[in-house]
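Sequence in, structure out.
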Amino acid sequence: MEKLRKIRDEKEARRCVAAARAAGNLGQWARAHGYDGRSLHAWAMNLGRGTAAKSAARRTSSARVANESAPALVELIPTPSPTPTGRVVMQLGDVRIEVGPDFDSVVLRRLLAVLRAC
């Protein structure tokens, strides 16, 4: 099975999304050109949010609203670990959660619920 390419940067994403939209179907275009369709779709969503956020910022005179951003989709790309520990690290802003291979998913859900409430 051929490994599909991920889109690595905004410049490549803008070029691919434009070409796929011109072709009419993101998924079919991605397959035909060897790209991971999920990666292309994630970039299309994020680029769309960026455009919408910039337009909203231009329409408002409030700096507070212009500086706030809606939650965005973050694409996770696995990278090889120099020392495989089985640990998973999740970080968003200044919040970092690290769990081992034996973590309890129920406890993690409760922890995330507490963080959401903050």
